[in-house]
Structure to design on (695 residues):
């Protein structure tokens, strides 16, 4: 049954979900849940937290699907819902630990490449960032929002967003450097 | 540039990244969706409840209007057609009578044409042709002491004043009395019924005093004096024929409107919800305080649970009076409720243990020591409890509207025979259990419920009528056995759909 559903077109899946067909909803979930879990993991600290966001996000997707006008790709639309759900769940934490401008940080002269590093390690690095830095880094570097938009989304100034990003990047580069020296020393066996 | 490259590399690293979520995520999503669907269903049920309440209110309003109109009709009847003897007596009392020679209108004459017939039927004598031809009409006061007198100058003025002063009399209701001394000329009448004895002129001396009572005057048709009667057999026959034709027309109209339904049967189904408006476990008897502290929370959830009610059945009805009907039948009734608990009941047989959803079935008759062994704490879960009854309703109904479209208000009793209840916990780990009526059942085997509802129906053929029945059901006693001391009286609100076959 699930195999049959994997053959369904995106449009058929949308129509099935809109009519409340549970197997279509399951098929849509099967199709996108793995990618979306990674999105949720980028915004959270633990897998359990990410799965909570994923669950809430998919419930929103199924309810909001009737309003989806197909102006963008379904995957993009679902990702946006997941990011918004994640931001909502982070907002309380961000409110408790408000983001402030950080001092200018001197970036390392040499950019460290991330090629060859498995995404799970990159994910761990992102999760290890401070709350504010993690959110801003995700929004700017991966989601592609600019600092003005991030400021509006999070209720912070553009400058704060920039400084948080700079700090995130600095911290990540430091981690990457550490990793690369580790590789140089021990090879890629760890990965 | 370098920065963009850095960010792009991160974006690329995650573009194809995937991780398998745990199975629990989809289960929770499914539960959320079900809960939402349940919420929608509840909202829909609420809408239907409101619809049912509105239709009950509408039916009551219609009944109220109908009752008001009936009482008004009875008051209209008090403008009684007096017997000739009364009229004669009344005519002797010159102070309270009015005799006017009207410019008769067609409507007036037609309305009066039937009155002598009615008089003669009431007195048991054959109507005389003269009574049809020469009605003698008078306004009589029913309260002489409170009457005031007016002496008008002309007949038309009289008519107007009578109308104005009584405040209710219309021109057609105004009573005209023929003097009886004028010329008798049936040809003056424009109708088929002659109106004779019209006075040619009026003067103050001949005119009696008009008495305007404080209360509404009674309409009196006085039988004319024998010597003044002009018998016209042809006209009398015509009047009788006209009356008969009118009666036949009314009979056929009644037959068409469906008011002759005498015996019918119907099949129907109903759906609705119930809420336990009065539930308490505070007086649980036959249990020690310790045992009660263990059992009461479980029973409390169960006794207060609300849920859905479904029924289907067969009914028979008969008309017992013009507007009264009696209906009875047999219905299979299911009341399904849900509640959350964090206990399970464990029963051990030999080396194996069986777990059941926490429910009063397992607690009845259990000793305190057993209770502590039986009840095991668990994670919160939902229990589905389904109660089944055989209900035998008997209702009296009043037909507010008895036409092709019918409105009926019903009230009565139902004898509910408890058949069985089934308890099932969410998930597969808990065993499904059933409990029939009997000593080991916590439920009453027989209970009485009050029924009240309305029936909005439509007759769509000679033998078939479809009806919508919003109604409420309320048990007179708790559904639990009285010795347990558990109060639970669920108020059910449902809407039924019935198809009625009319035998005759």
């Amino acid at each position: 049954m699930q195999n049959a559903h994997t053959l369904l077109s995106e449009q058929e899946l949308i129509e099935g979900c809109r009519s409340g067909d549970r197997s279509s909803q399951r098929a849509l979930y099967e199709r996108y849940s793995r990618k979306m879990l990674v999105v949720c993991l980028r915004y959270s600290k633990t897998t359990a937290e990410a799965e909570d966001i994923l669950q809430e996000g998919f419930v929103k997707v199924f309810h909001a699907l009737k309003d989806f006008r197909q102006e963008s790709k379904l995957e993009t639309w679902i990702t946006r819902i997941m990011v918004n759900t994640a931001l909502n769940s982070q907002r309380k934490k961000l409110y408790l630990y408000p983001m402030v401008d950080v001092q200018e940080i001197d970036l390392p002269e040499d950019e460290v490449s991330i090629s060859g590093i498995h995404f799970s390690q990159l994910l761990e690095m992102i999760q290890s960032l401070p709350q504010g830095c993690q959110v801003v880094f995700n929004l700017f570097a991966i989601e592609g929002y600019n600092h003005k938009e991030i400021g509006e989304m999070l209720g912070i100034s553009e400058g704060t967003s920039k400084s948080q990003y700079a700090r995130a990047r600095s911290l990540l580069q430091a981690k990457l450097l550490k990793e690369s020296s580790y590789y140089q020393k021990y090879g890629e066996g760890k990965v | 540039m370098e920065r963009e490259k850095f960010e792009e590399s991160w974006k690329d690293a995650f573009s194809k990244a995937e991780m398998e979520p745990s199975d629990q995520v989809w289960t929770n999503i499914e539960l959320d969706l079900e809960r939402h669907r349940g919420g929608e269903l509840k909202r829909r049920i609420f809408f239907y409840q409101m619809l049912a309440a509105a239709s009950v209110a509408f039916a009551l309003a219609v009944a109220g209007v109908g009752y008001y109109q009936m009482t008004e009709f009875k008051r209209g009847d008090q403008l009684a057609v007096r017997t000739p003897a009364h009229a004669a007596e009344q005519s002797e009392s010159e102070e309270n009578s009015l005799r006017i020679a009207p410019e008769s209108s067609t409507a007036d004459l037609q309305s009066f044409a039937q009155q002598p017939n009615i008089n003669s039927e009431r007195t048991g004598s054959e109507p005389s042709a003269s009574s049809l031809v020469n009605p003698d009409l008078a306004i009589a006061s029913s309260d002489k002491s409170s009457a005031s007198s007016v002496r008008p100058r002309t007949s038309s003025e009289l008519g107007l004043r009578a109308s104005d002063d009584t405040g209710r009399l219309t021109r057609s209701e105004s009573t005209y009395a023929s003097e009886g001394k004028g010329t008798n000329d049936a040809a003056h009448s424009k109708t088929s019924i002659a109106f004779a004895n019209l006075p040619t002129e009026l003067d103050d001396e001949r005119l009696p005093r008009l008495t305007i009572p404080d209360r509404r005057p009674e309409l009196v048709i006085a039988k004319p004096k024998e010597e003044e009667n002009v018998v016209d057999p042809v006209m009398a026959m015509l009047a009788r024929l006209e009356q008969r034709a009118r009666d036949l027309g009314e009979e056929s109209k009644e037959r068409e409107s469906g008011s002759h339904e005498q015996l019918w049967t119907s099949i129907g189904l109903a759906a609705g919800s119930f809420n336990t408006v009065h539930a308490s476990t505070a007086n649980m008897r036959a249990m020690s305080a310790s045992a009660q502290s263990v059992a009461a929370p479980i029973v409390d959830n169960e006794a207060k649970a609300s849920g859905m009610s479904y029924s289907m059945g067969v009914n028979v009805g008969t008309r017992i009076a013009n507007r009264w009907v009696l209906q009875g039948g047999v219905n299979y009734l299911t009341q399904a409720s849900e509640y959350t608990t964090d206990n399970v009941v464990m029963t051990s047989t030999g080396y194996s243990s069986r777990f059941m959803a926490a429910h009063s079935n397992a607690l009845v008759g259990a000793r305190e020591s057993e209770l502590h062994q039986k009840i095991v704490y668990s994670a919160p879960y939902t229990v589905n409890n389904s109660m089944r009854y055989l209900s035998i309703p008997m209702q009296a109904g009043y037909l507010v509207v008895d036409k092709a479209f019918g409105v009926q208000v019903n009230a009565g009793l139902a004898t509910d025979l408890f058949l069985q209840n089934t308890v099932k916990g969410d998930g597969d780990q808990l065993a499904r259990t059933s409990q029939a009526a009997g000593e080991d059942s916590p439920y009453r085997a027989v209970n009485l419920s009050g029924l009240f509802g309305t029936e909005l129906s439509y007759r769509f053929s000679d033998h078939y009528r479809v009806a919508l029945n919003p109604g409420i059901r309320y048990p007179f006693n708790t559904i639990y056995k009285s010795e347990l001391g558990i109060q639970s009286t669920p108020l059910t609100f449902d809407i039924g759909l019935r198809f009625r076959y009319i035998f005759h």
Q: What stands out?
A: Chain B has two domains: 84-251, 260-502. Residues 81-88, 93-202 of chain B have pLDDT under 50 and may be disordered. Residues 103 and 352 of chain B are 104 Å apart (CA to CA).
